[in-house]
């Protein structure tokens, strides 16, 4: 049972092991339900040893586990700058949604708020991830100086992705992840087009992004599906 | 100074006056910064009198002020079931955004979370408003049994409206409210179309909604602005 306690780990290895263990526990249950004793037991070490590494106890351990999860989340949006924009977005969303799937209860507890473990510092970590994701997406649009409309569009879409992820968890992880991903990509395309109607900078980016799309890609698929829905409404043009 | 204290108010009137006074103070500053003494002074009554009405002190007063604001917000989405859907949505958003404008700091503090005044009960109040808004919108779509995709679409859009409202407050209330409102209506139309591409129920509702639109309305305006942006991309169809 306690064998792992006797493995010789360096200070950094032990710290990392405790954070990983805590994250695995915090991922599937609200922070209130995870005790420090449980983290110690799962890591095969004593409670005093956990305190030696994390003198702040559970709040500190939670915050560090969250910081480690935030690093992982930030990585989701790192993507090579090549290929159609919707392909890149689709791959980023695949990673993001896999993260949501793998940290379901912890993700929901954190974003729903109202948790006793929530502090100004944990809020700042979450906001940091949001900002990093928005920056990544704007980078992919190759805009050196994104205007307020474009920034609002990206952040609004990201808020929608978060909301949809929480609803998806509530609904017993339905629809299947790849359908949710495709819908969120389509949401992005639709919101980009709607914003292009209001903002010349976004219009320019949308034209450039569309020129790089392929007819068997996300935009082509979306367009072919939307046309039959709107084709009786040409009187509006 | 203290003249209002001597007005004879009934118990219900006094309660209402204290809640209105508290709400006016909580509207423009985070709850931490508003003291019970300040509420008493602004209402022209003594501190003990506030406690007589709200034995739970500031937390109770905050919660009741929030409940009163929630009632007001819920009213924003009540709208007669006639005319094009985008007109109704536009009027509801006018009221909602006027509320955000009039309760700026309190609205931001509440939705940003991390506030000491936030509890499971205040969270439940906020969630109640979200649910009521979603129900209202679904009612206007005349769907007796909305499927999961349509519900997810409406709730995702509402999350985007909240996020855009917070960004709007951060950006010094730019762009002007009517531009923000039009953009949010266009966001709704775009998201509805994107969802129609994935879901037959949403496709049916979208067709019916489009048939009721007028060419000088929101959808006509959006379509005429989007066409020039996408017209070079017919290769995708």
Automatic annotation (TrEMBL), chains A, B:
InterPro entries: DesT_TetR_C (IPR054129), Homeodomain-like_sf (IPR009057), HTH-type_TetR-like_transc_reg (IPR050109), HTH_TetR (IPR001647). Keywords: DNA-binding, Transcription, Transcription regulation. It comes from Streptomyces carminius. SUPFAM superfamilies: Homeodomain-like. This is TetR family transcriptional regulator. PROSITE patterns: HTH_TETR_2. Residues 35-54 bind DNA. One of its GO terms (molecular function) is transcription cis-regulatory region binding. It comes from the Bacteria. Residues 12-72 form the HTH tetR-type domain.
């Amino acid at each position: 049972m306690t064998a792992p306690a006797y493995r010789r780990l360096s200070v950094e290895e032990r710290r990392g092991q405790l954070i990983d263990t805590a994250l695995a526990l915090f991922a599937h249950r609200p922070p209130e339900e995870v005790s420090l004793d449980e983290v110690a037991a799962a890591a095969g070490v004593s409670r005093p040893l956990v305190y030696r590494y994390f003198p702040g106890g559970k709040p500190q351990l939670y915050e560090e586990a969250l910081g480690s999860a935030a690093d992982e989340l930030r990585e989701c949006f790192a993507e090579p700058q090549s290929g159609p924009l919707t392909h890149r977005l689709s791959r980023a969303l695949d990673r993001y949604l896999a993260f949501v799937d793998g940290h379901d209860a912890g993700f929901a507890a954190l974003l729903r708020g109202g948790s006793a473990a929530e502090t100004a510092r944990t809020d700042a970590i979450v906001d940091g991830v949001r900002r990093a994701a928005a920056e990544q997406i704007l980078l992919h649009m190759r805009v050196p100086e994104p205007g307020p409309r474009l920034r609002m569009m990206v952040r609004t879409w990201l808020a929608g992705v978060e909301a949809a992820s929480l609803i998806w968890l509530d609904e017993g992880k339905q629809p299947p992840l790849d359908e949710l991903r495709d819908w969120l990509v389509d949401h992005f395309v639709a919101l980009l087009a709607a914003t292009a109607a209001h903002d010349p900078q976004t219009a320019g980016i949308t034209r450039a992004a569309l020129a790089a799309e392929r007819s068997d890609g996300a935009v082509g698929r979306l367009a072919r599906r939307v046309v039959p829905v709107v084709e009786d409404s040409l009187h509006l043009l």
